[in-house]
Specification:
Distance between the termini: 18 Å
Strand content: 5-15%
CATH superfamily: NAD(P)-binding Rossmann-like Domain
Shape: globular
Strand order of the largest sheet: 3-2-1-4-5-7-6
Number of strands: 7
CATH architecture: 3-Layer(aba) Sandwich
CATH topology: Rossmann fold
Number of domains: 1
Order of helices and strands: HHEHEHEEHEEHEHH
Structural class: alpha/beta
């Protein structure tokens, strides 16, 4: 009998599909990278997915975020993603956490409940805290480095954080993780040199924000590829050497 995951089962086998259905994965950051990762995990047959993000869909998300449509502008990203996953697989247990992960919320979540964690957030302090808590809980985690201001998805690769180069975010993460005694971290990153974004035409409020922190430019075909790579690494790690 055919079902949603028949084609995947042809490659992976029923035992692997059962393993994926029994797995629980947390995705932190439901943007261009994390949204694609969450959808790929759902389409792979993961049975339980937790979504973390405190942001709402904005019109500027439409060019690259899988959940961003004119019909979803203004809605919580985690709620839109949850609906989308359940439309893909109604049997998936999806939990939406509309919150910012940081010092004030970190103690609310038991990372030992997850089989894998995907870090697709862009706040350095939160990334570091997330990785520290995952490491302390013994829960595998994979982290996305910078995907903004880049144009070549073919340059994305999987590596350990201490073997990365060029990427400015990875440079900061290497230093901070070393200081925290984190011995390794699997990441998806690119050695492509980042472009400098052009100045956007902005209103007075946007100009003030722009001066505080330059918003990166992005395109439709780089962040999702990073997300798909993250999801693929999670799936392969979860099924391990299961024989078909």
């Amino acid at each position: 009998m055919q079902h949603e995951f028949s084609r995947a089962e042809m490659l992976l086998g029923s035992e692997a599909m059962k393993k994926l259905y029994e797995s629980r994965v947390a995705v932190f950051g439901i943007g261009g990278v994390g949204g694609a990762a969450a959808e790929a995990l759902a389409r792979a047959g993961i049975g339980a997915i937790d979504l973390f993000d405190d942001d709402k869909v904005n019109i500027t998300n439409i060019n690259r975020q899988i959940i961003a449509l004119h019909s979803t502008i203004g809605r919580e990203k985690v709620d839109v993603m949850r609906e989308r996953i359940l439309d893909i697989n109604p049997r998936c247990n999806v939990t939406a956490h509309a919150c910012f992960y940081g010092q004030n919320s970190a103690d609310e979540f038991d990372f030992s409940a997850f089989d894998f964690i995907v870090d697709a957030i862009d706040t350095v302090s939160s990334k570091l805290l997330l990785i520290e808590r995952a490491y302390a809980a013994g829960t595998p985690i994979i982290s996305a480095m910078g995907a903004g201001n880049k144009l070549d998805p073919a340059r994305l690769e999987v590596s350990d954080i201490y073997k990365t180069s060029v990427c400015p975010l990875a440079r900061v993460m290497r230093k901070e993780l070393k200081a925290r005694g984190i011995p390794s971290l699997k990441v998806v990153y690119s050695r492509e040199e980042a472009l400098t974004p052009l100045e956007e035409e902005s209103d007075e409020n946007s100009v003030a924000l722009h001066k505080k922190r330059q918003t990166p430019g992005s395109v439709s075909f780089v962040p999702p590829v990073a997300g798909f790579i993250l999801a693929g690494e999670v799936v392969r790690s979860l099924i391990g050497n299961i024989n078909r």
